[in-house]
Design goal:
14% strand, 12 strands
Length: 401
């Protein structure tokens, strides 16, 4: 059996979960896994393990894409017309989405040619937006089966053609039970199986060294996430600035980069937090592991945006729990499936600086209540990428059979 993965861009520094899954699945497959990308990568930070995939990456150019489109016009005109009509009719009230989707068609047509030429049996896409659209087009043109993994914004916000993509898929992967229910609600008429397969980490890469914040002296907290609105960094700064007593001992390192960096730096300065906030920039996975090992506490105060966008289950939380850190996150989406408040970690109300202060104070005053061993065991049982890869490969094989 031959499988191809489809993504928007590769490499993407914030999508280590895709790289981990690629490696884990490739180790289990008898044939090489192909990697299809739609757009040019924009990140300057590249994880070392992405290098071998970059050498094999297939990303079509403009000339090749138009040539492939012409080939399908000759050989599968009815299928191609059906694709174009579906895109136009499904997005009749969203002209900008229709235009962007039509722009993907030539790229997907080139990938469909690649799928046919290489004898690919199944295409699996990450994200329900353009990658799933590409997989859907490959299915229509090349006659192969496909599936896709839905994460967060790609279903919470961008639901265009979601029903069509779900209906024609062999199966859909949701990264949490919350997401599975969400997709089922949006696609009630679909009979396509929706399976929960968690994104995961390699626990062996994160030595378990349980630790709790000291009762005195500085507390080194780490926050890992792109510097964008959904991560809730502003809430964290407000909680640190307004928090009294022991919260003043917390010093936070922010790992990640993004459009809000300058704004957050100014905010930290205006709140008098210059000496307690360190901006580390984008880090590779090994450097993040080192930062986790040097920390006393982990916090990621994700928020729900006004348009309804929110996190899925951030992989950074899994990494922190695997290391044995007391972990604080927001009570939203699938996060409570990983962090059970007061047991495997602490939860705060999204966007509420006061609630986050309370959680931070609990982490300092009652850290002994958190069962760090239970948190590690949960990671090994439900969020180990090897186990997730086993399930995915079994699904691929069932489709092929």
């Amino acid at each position: 059996m031959k499988v191809a993965y489809c993504v928007s861009r590769f490499p993407a520094a914030s999508e280590t979960f895709v790289l981990r899954e690629l490696n884990a699945v490739a180790d289990l497959m008898p044939e090489p896994v192909e990697l299809l990308s739609l757009f040019r990568a924009t990140d300057s930070t590249v994880h070392p393990e992405a290098a071998p995939w970059i050498d094999r990456l297939r990303r079509p150019g403009g000339v090749d894409s138009i040539s492939a489109l012409r080939w399908w016009v000759v050989h599968r005109p009815t299928a191609l017309i059906g694709i174009l009509l579906t895109i136009l009719t499904s997005n009749a009230r969203r002209p900008s989405v229709a235009i962007r989707s039509l722009a993907v068609v030539p790229l997907a047509a080139r990938h469909a040619r690649t799928v046919s030429e290489l004898g690919i049996d199944h295409v699996h896409a990450h994200f329900a937006t353009y990658p799933a659209l590409c997989a859907w087009i490959c299915g229509r043109l090349a006659g192969v089966s496909y599936s896709f993994t839905a994460h967060a914004h790609d279903i919470f916000i961008h639901q265009w053609m979601l029903e069509e993509k779900v209906d024609d898929a062999s199966f859909v992967v949701a990264i949490s039970e919350h997401n599975r229910r969400f997709i089922q609600e949006k696609c009630r008429a679909s009979e396509t199986p929706i399976e929960v397969v968690h994104c995961g980490v390699e626990p062996a890469r994160y030595p378990f060294a349980p630790r709790r914040p000291a009762s005195s002296g500085p507390v080194r907290a780490l926050c890992v996430g792109a510097l964008r609105e959904s991560k809730g960094h502003e809430v964290l700064l407000a909680a640190l600035a307004e928090g009294a007593g022991a919260i003043g001992r917390i010093e936070v390192s922010l790992a990640g980069d993004g459009p809000l960096r300058e704004e957050l730096e100014r905010e930290a300065a205006s709140l008098g937090l210059d000496d307690r906030i360190t901006f580390l920039g984008a880090l590779t996975e090994p450097v993040v592991a080192d930062a986790l090992a040097a920390s006393d506490l982990f916090v990621l105060p994700s928020v729900v945006l006004p348009n309804g966008d929110m996190e899925g289950i951030p992989v950074a939380l899994m990494e922190a729990m695997a290391c044995g850190l007391v972990t604080i996150a927001s009570r939203m989406s699938g996060i409570p499936e990983l962090i059970v408040d007061g047991e495997t970690g602490l939860l705060a109300t999204p966007g509420d600086a006061g609630s986050l202060q309370t959680a931070l104070q609990r982490a300092l005053d009652a850290a002994d209540e958190i069962d760090l061993v239970k948190g590690r065991e949960l990671i090994e049982a439900e969020f180990d990428i090897a186990r997730s890869a086993d399930r995915l490969v079994a699904m691929f094989e069932r489709v092929n059979a």
